[in-house]
Amino acid sequence: MYSLSPFSKHRSRQYRNSRQRYWLRSYLGYPLVRDTQPNTTHYALAALQHTGHINHLITQNVDGLHHRAIDHLWDDARIDTRILELHGTLHRVHCQFGHVVSRDAFQDRLSASNPKWKAFVDELEATGKKPRTNPDGDVELEGVSYDDFVVPECLACLAQGRHNTNQKPELIFFGESIPQSIKERSFRDIERSDKLFLIGTTLATFSAYRLVKHALELKKPVLLLNVGPTRADGLEGIDKIEIATSRVMRDVVRAVLGRRASIDPVIVNLLNNGIHRPPLDDNDG
Ligand SMILES: [Zn+2]
């Protein structure tokens, strides 16, 4: 016979609460992630990807916006081989047994399991109001707490008779190391490139910094475009330009492509796309 001690009962309840709390926050925050559009820098880079000037793009961002900037030109297979998301993505969810679903599909299942919260999200979207939060950053909703939030089961696990398996977004959380396959591919992408162009990054994470070191060891030219101090400052062999990427990237594309930038309709369209962000709001990408 198998029974839970009071201690482990308490522990498992705590675990369930933190999981409910995590997914409730994620449920409320996801519409913003889902609806965010690429900016001018994403589209400028997409232009250089399209013309073959950038063959391997490695991003530290998890928002999927580099994918979105080029998904009208490239299919998924091509995007997967040409864009590496070093720290994972917000757009997929996996369970501890490796079953993967899209975040959109998971959001729909969260909605279906939590009609009260869905009504709340619909109202926020309709009115444009921001949710009221308590000092812990949790949303307060009269008569409903995160205790009531239902995290749906992994359907593939359920079909195999497994209940309550842990599901999380495909992200590298703080303190986790990146999977070996991603690490190896990031090094290979550096080795296959003839130069490294770093854009809008302080290189604060080691997984990015060691790629710069690797490029320098291989004597590849490295150019860094970023405003403010970075972890690579002072490393020999790096050229640094302190200008916000959103100010210059479209001009960089025009300079690299010359006349094609004004006559190729695909490029013209990419260079006219994107939300203009304030220059100081530079992205860590
Ligand atoms: Zn599963």
From TrEMBL:
<keyword id="KW-0520">NAD</keyword>
<dbReference type="InterPro" id="IPR026591">
    <property type="entry name" value="Sirtuin_cat_small_dom_sf"/>
</dbReference>
<keyword id="KW-0808">Transferase</keyword>
<dbReference type="InterPro" id="IPR029035">
    <property type="entry name" value="DHS-like_NAD/FAD-binding_dom"/>
</dbReference>
<keyword id="KW-0496">Mitochondrion</keyword>
<dbReference type="InterPro" id="IPR003000">
    <property type="entry name" value="Sirtuin"/>
</dbReference>
<comment type="similarity">
    <text>Belongs to the sirtuin family. Class I subfamily.</text>
</comment>
<dbReference type="Pfam" id="PF02146">
    <property type="entry name" value="SIR2"/>
</dbReference>
<feature type="domain" description="Deacetylase sirtuin-type">
    <location>
        <begin position="1"/>
        <end position="285"/>
    </location>
</feature>
<dbReference type="GO" id="GO:0070403">
    <property type="term" value="F:NAD+ binding"/>
</dbReference>
<protein>
    <submittedName>
        <fullName>DHS-like NAD/FAD-binding domain-containing protein</fullName>
    </submittedName>
</protein>
<dbReference type="GO" id="GO:0017136">
    <property type="term" value="F:histone deacetylase activity, NAD-dependent"/>
</dbReference>
<dbReference type="InterPro" id="IPR026590">
    <property type="entry name" value="Ssirtuin_cat_dom"/>
</dbReference>
<dbReference type="GO" id="GO:0005739">
    <property type="term" value="C:mitochondrion"/>
</dbReference>
<dbReference type="InterPro" id="IPR050134">
    <property type="entry name" value="NAD-dep_sirtuin_deacylases"/>
</dbReference>
